[in-house]
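FAQ: What does the model actually see?

It sees only this:
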Amino acid sequence: MAFTFKNSKGVTYYLHFKDVNLKGGRQQRIFFFARNIRDDSLDAVPDGYKVIETTRTGMPILKKK
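And it is asked to produce this:
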């Protein structure tokens, strides 16, 4: 089951990840929230991160602890 976060406006978001290749050839994993569940969803917040909500838009983001 995908990790869910309901913001202050009542909208539910699901946590996902994507592995991307940077210019130098290094691979990095990025995390993002979406309103729908996709194949690359995560079951829990990664270690060392916490979920916060932006004050302007209410969109959830991951922040390092």
